[in-house]
């Protein structure tokens, strides 16, 4: 995709749905302070201290690398978010960084008991960190469980997460963060 080509409509819809998870006042801007506060407020009730510290480190890294972009913005508009996540199409290392980041998310946050898989309940708790309603979890879980074994492996988790941000087609990965919100 060239810099002058428009972003694919379906991909922009995914980014909008992701953006509104954090744009609670729907003003079209996510501030780093609000982003961090939203994540911390949910996590402190669901995670132990070690997990909370890891999670907040991941959230901070996500802001700095994926949201703020090279300009290191502290206030990000929807189109800033789209532009910064569109780096996935032009920077080969971007997808690899995403995948490594989601591996850590899987191992330290989503897989609560450390058994190498994420159950529906664990996925519900993971999505709950981002404000996704528990009733929205079953379709997302089923979409990510590509081999149909009733659990999500590390590869299924990371592939779906990266697919959400990197794939322009309508694939099951579109449900990684729950149903579309916008």
Automatic annotation (TrEMBL):
Entries under PROSITE patterns matching the protein: EF_HAND_1, EF_HAND_2
InterPro entries attached to this UniProt entry: EF-hand-dom_pair, EF_Hand_1_Ca_BS, EF_hand_dom
CDD domains according to UniProt: EFh (cd00051)
Gene3D superfamilies according to UniProt: EF-hand
GO molecular function, one term: calcium ion binding
Alphabetical UniProt keywords: Calcium
Domain EF-hand: 108-133, 141-167
Name the record gives this protein: Sarcoplasmic calcium-binding protein-like
């Amino acid at each position: 995709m060239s810099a002058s080509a428009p972003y694919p409509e379906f991909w922009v819809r995914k980014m909008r749905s992701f953006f509104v998870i954090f744009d609670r006042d729907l003003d079209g801007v996510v501030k780093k302070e609000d982003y961090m506060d939203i994540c911390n407020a949910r996590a402190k009730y669901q995670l132990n201290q070690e997990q909370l510290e890891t999670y907040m480190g991941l959230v901070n890294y996500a802001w700095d690398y994926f949201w703020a972009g090279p300009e290191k913005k502290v206030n990000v508009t929807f189109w800033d978010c789209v532009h910064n996540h569109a780096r996935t199409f032009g920077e080969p290392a971007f997808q690899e960084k995403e995948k490594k980041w989601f591996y850590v998310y899987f191992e330290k946050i989503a897989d609560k008991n450390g058994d190498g898989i994420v159950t529906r309940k664990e996925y519900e708790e993971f999505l709950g960190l981002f404000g996704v309603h528990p009733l929205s979890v079953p379709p997302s879980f089923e979409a990510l469980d590509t081999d149909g074994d009733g659990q999500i492996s590390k590869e299924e988790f990371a592939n779906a997460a990266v697919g959400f941000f990197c794939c322009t087609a309508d694939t099951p990965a579109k449900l990684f963060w729950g149903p579309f919100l916008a």
